[in-house]
Specification:
mainly beta; single chain; Immunoglobulin-like; Alpha-Beta Plaits; 44% strand; 4 helices; 303 residues; five-stranded mixed β-sheet; 13% helix
Length: 303
């Protein structure tokens, strides 16, 4: 027989409590999400709690208390609440799992707050360059908490439907994965903020509308293609020091781009025109000053 520190809980077992460790677990519905059992919370009876590494388990009584005895000295074991024994299938632990170390003759007291989980569902749609809309399959969506941590990452189904399950109360936002946007050449989409209560929410109709990027073909006057930015910068500085003031006046603000294979390096551009003839005129003027150039068709995204 053992008495817990609060002088209200008694632990009784046919084995000696002095030769092994004991865990007294209080399982309760934490209505105010403070992690502490108080007058507004509800004890949960008939919930199975186990210590798997010690091969021991117990079931909570009407006060929500389970006494797990017979944990060998110095054995470290997880304390697990079996979710399928909670009174509501939407209930889940408020905090992550934890472990205790068995100490002979010592009673470990642990509180295990439980809360109602929530779900978020919606669809992902895609509009192509011709304004044709369709549901988009296998889109990677990320659920991010208020600390900026990734909570869940899922993909939409074949019909564009997605569902986040088992979400704890709190503030979140859903974002489309950046890698997916780059791979599909889709425009960035605004994150959707979500707030979930402790009562357990089902948030429906959280839809994403993705749009294909649209481009305008323009003509870039370039001074060559460079494997690294350092080489490009070095060439540009040498060019500015060695050319005349008249030639410098023909050089617009430099920019770099690569519409094809990034492994081939970037082009150094000094002019961008919608009219191809204007591009040829600038390039011819530069070549008359001894500066080699070429005309490259460059895709410019339409806002």
């Amino acid at each position: 027989m053992g008495l817990v520190d609060d002088a209200k809980t008694m632990v009784m077992n046919r084995r000696s409590l002095t030769s092994a460790g004991t865990v007294v677990a209080l399982v309760f519905l934490d209505n105010n999400l403070n992690g502490v059992f108080d007058e507004n919370d509800e004890p949960l009876p008939n919930v199975k709690v186990s210590a798997p590494q010690a091969t021991r388990r117990a079931v909570t009584n009407e006060d929500g208390v389970a006494g797990i005895t017979g944990i060998r000295d110095s054995v470290v074991t997880d304390i697990i609440v079996h979710r399928d024994t909670l009174p509501d299938p939407f209930m889940m632990q408020l905090e992550k799992g934890f472990a205790v170390r068995g100490r002979s003759g010592f009673i470990n007291e642990v509180s295990i707050p439980v809360t109602m989980s929530s779900e978020i569902e919606g669809n992902v749609f895609f509009t192509d360059a011709y304004d044709n809309q369709r549901q988009l399959a296998y889109v990677t969506l990320n659920l991010i908490n208020s600390d900026g941590e990734l909570v869940q990452s899922i993909s939409s189904e074949y019909d564009g439907y997605y569902l986040f399950l088992d979400i704890l109360p709190g503030d979140y936002h859903i974002e489309v994965d950046d890698e997916y946007l780059r791979a599909t050449d889709a425009k960035p989409v605004q994150d959707i903020p979500i707030t979930l209560s402790a009562k357990g929410d089902l948030i429906s109709g959280v839809d994403f509308m993705l749009n294909a990027k649209q481009y305008d073909a323009q003509y870039a006057v370039t001074l060559g293609q460079f494997n690294t930015p350092d080489i490009m910068q070095t060439y540009w500085q040498i060019l500015l020091r060695s050319t005349s003031d008249e030639s410098k006046a023909m050089l617009n603000e430099p920019f770099f781009f690569n519409d094809d294979d990034p492994q081939q390096g970037d082009y150094l551009g000094v002019g961008l025109y919608q009219n191809k003839q204007y591009a040829f005129e600038q390039c011819n003027a530069l070549e008359q000053q001894g500066i080699a150039c070429e005309i490259i068709t460059h895709k410019v995204e339409i806002p």
